[in-house]
Automatic annotation (TrEMBL):
Assigned protein family: Belongs to the NAC-alpha family.
Pfam families referenced in this protein's UniProt entry, alphabetically: NAC, UBA_HYPK
Name this polypeptide is given: Nascent polypeptide-associated complex protein
A GO term for molecular function: RNA binding
Organism whose genome encodes this protein: Candidatus Nitrosopumilus salarius BD31
InterPro entries in UniProt: NAC-like_UBA, NAC_A/B_dom_sf, NAC_arc, Nas_poly-pep-assoc_cplx_dom, UBA-like_sf
Ranges where the NAC-A/B domain occurs: 3-71
Function: Contacts the emerging nascent chain on the ribosome.
Length: 113
């Protein structure tokens, strides 16, 4: 950390146009990917606001990871499999689920009968 502590840090942030605030009473933060969820209970969350965006810092003692039973496939993946295999998007999605997201395997499943 810098010498001068928080006051010096705040001055520097003000010069850069950043505003930093603690987000109070956060119960949980959930980060979702296409294959899993990361659940963070009672984290400490700080928001740093800049002109065009915000940066959130999440600090936690522990967290839980959950694999999704059915991965979430992007619309692009579903469309690609659908087009390549010549099937509707519902069949493409089913093949992606069966192949656990492996695009090539999903297309093969649909085209090799």
């Amino acid at each position: 950390m810098m010498r001068g502590g928080n006051r010096e840090m705040r001055r520097m942030m003000d010069k850069m146009g950043l505003d930093m605030n603690e987000v109070s009473n956060v119960q949980e933060v959930i980060i979702k990917t296409d294959k899993k969820e990361i659940i963070i209970t009672k984290p400490s969350v700080t928001e740093m606001k800049a002109k065009d965006n915000s940066i959130f810092t999440v600090t936690a003692d522990s967290y839980e990871e959950r694999e999704l039973e059915v991965p979430i496939f992007s619309d692009e993946d579903i469309q690609l499999v659908s087009q390549q295999a010549g099937v509707d998007e519902e069949k493409a999605k089913s093949a992606l689920e069966e192949s656990k997201g492996d695009l090539a395997r999903a297309i093969l499943l649909l085209t090799t009968g």
